[in-house]
Amino acid sequence: MVKKIFSGVQPTGNLHLGNYLGAIKNFVELNNDNQNKCVFCVVDLHAITVKQDPKELRNNIRETVATFIASGIDPSKSIIFNQSKVTAHSEIAWILSCVARMGWLNRMTQFKEKAGKDKEKASVGLYSYPILMAADILLYDATHVPVGDDQKQHLELCRDIAQKFNNDFEVEDFFVIPEPLIQKEFSRIMSLKDGLKKMSKSDESDLSRINLTDTKDQIINKIKKAKTDSLPLPSNVEELNKRPEALNLIGIYSSLNNSSLEETIKNFSGKNFSDFKNSLSQLMVDKIDPISLEIRKLLDDSDYLDQILSEGVKKAQEIASQKVKKIHEIIGF
Ligand code: AMP
Ligand code: TRP
Questions:
Q1: Tens digit of pLDDT for each residue in 130-152?
Q2: Is the CB of 85 under 6 A from ligand 1?
Q3: pTM as predicted
């Protein structure tokens, strides 16, 4: 079966190891399978749901493209584009906002987390954010959406919206109901400073995350300072599951090494954290440093990055405009 893949990453700077292991690494594997048709979107409209500096936003859009390419996505195989340039996304988000129900959105945990205590001050865009995400996915008839674990709820909402549209307008199968592609293990990479908190670009402490643009020395230093507990490494997964920091570091090692937790535990069981951290730093430098160097090289050639986006925009526009035409007909515009 041909899989139609769609995913998005926000250009908000500091793309980190969580983005890489939770999402982008998976994008690369999907891109490499010639059977798949992939669309990877720099979701700049989502980024402005919180305040952005225009100059930084422009740089961050390019940096996200550079990260995609440096990680191994091939722009001649996959469509890479920026969301704001294909106006169908905003338009269809409006239409879908007339399909989605308030009660559905009120359940979204990401809004609750991001809006914090003072919900009255959150932008309306932050609240309706998952509807725009549904528009992204449904415009391209995506069958599969690779994301990290934190996006699972938004994807369920997208499925509900698609289903309701199909039912309301009696157009069975018009919107494809997308399947989430969430990795079974390592779908949530945690902060290096707190094994119970997600690794995030918005964490105040830079020591909490490995940025994909970090240098070798920064990586080694951050792993050295990563929080651990005082016991030697565990001998089985059951014990590991009770120790969040150990679980996170062993999970990161396994994911980078393409091995299972069990295999990693077998190699390090009974050793102390300092030995394990040396191996982890080495592995991480081997995997991340080439990406980091390539990102920095690509960022020197903004014309090349802009060209990739403008070619991607053309291809995306072609697909999206056909879908919009059909949506207009169905609705009665
Ligand atoms: P964002 O930067 O919020 O646009 O996220 C881009 C992708 O990275 C999404 O698929 C997220 O689910 C994924 N992601 C972000 N943070 C993490 C994390 N700490 N662990 C795993 N996946 C993550
Ligand atoms: N909301 C996603 C995130 O924060 C990004 C995103 C926007 C997305 N549109 C999408 C992901 C469509 C998958 C499909 O990570």
A1: 999 999 999 999 999 999 999 99
A2: no
A3: 0.95
